[in-house]
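Sequence in, structure out.
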Amino acid sequence: MPEATMQHVDLADRIRALRMSRGLTQEELADASGVSIGVVRKIEQGGTARMETYHALARALGVVTMTFVAAGPPEPVLDGPPDVMLAPIRAAVAPAMNLRGEPMFGTADAAELSLSRLAATVSAVSAIYHSNRYDDLAQLLPPLLLSTQHHVTHLGDGPTRADALRLRANAYNLAARYLIQVRAHDLALIAVQRCQQDALTIGNTSILSAAISVQAWAMMRQGRFKEIVDLCSHAADELEPRMSRATPDELTSWGVLLGRASTAAARDNRPDEAEEYANLSILAGERIGHEYYGGLEAGDRSFGPLTAAFSRTENAMVAGDPGLAVRLFAKIPRTAGEVVSSTWNRALLDEARAHVQVGDADRATGIMTGLRLKAPEWLRYQQLGHDTTREIVGTAKRKLTDEQRALVDFFSITD
């Protein structure tokens, strides 16, 4: 029996043993978890499932999600085109190294360096990221990364080196966030850890905190929940400010990391820890009093009462309580300012799914349609958007509306 198949069987045995030790039938486990009986049966027969399905089963069985994550080789997947499409940015983030350990890349303008021009370009590309123009980013990020590397290399150890390292760190952070959006998580981790190294070299706490936050985001997509809680809680401990004189930048660095820790703990079925971290994140947001945009050095993120409140709404959905999520969304302090588009859009996806799960498919359809029209390139990469649309279609008791059919076509849902 192939090793991967053996591991699936081991996992099936583990779930079956836990279910039986709780005195549950397959039907009762399906009801308690919200997973269909068909999926429960397939998993217990050795089939695989997505992380959110394992989380739902773990919640019903009273164990942490990582109980159902087994180490081993992945299933073979013939998935060459994405690697080909990412080849230019892969060459920029992880270039070939010669025998002396030097990266091999070249440019025609190595002698014409300008930190002011480079800074303006990093800012311009950041604006393109927030406009969800992923096709443009795929073309612009590779030469931008190479340019930052050339500036660091050719400026040497002079007084401008710190500025060059800061700009390179910001470019790596930007590249990492783009790579997470297009699901190239391993490459994103390489980029963000290089950002972190530059931040450590120049002693920039804001960039360092942003790098750890993005690192946690990439790891979240890989199901590495316990690592994220440890990473972010330890970093938050080191960065905890004195509340009486904390600056917005310090509160942002601390609050964002606590929000990441909360989300990871919720996904690992550790609700008490999730609530504790969420409360501290909300405390930081309330201390600022409004949404604060930290700028490029803080990873292009905003933080405040609104952003911090999203931790609780997201955790409610993870815990399988859409009714609570709808109530929490109604209480969110929407007058506290604006958040960056990707954060707001992600919250709207949670809100749409909460509404469809409490029986308001029309409201969910309206939210999803707004996202489709406003941020189509971003939405296309969101598995949650695909799943929410499937739930909307599955609850339809009559012919699909034009808006619902447009969502079906957008996500290419055929069954």
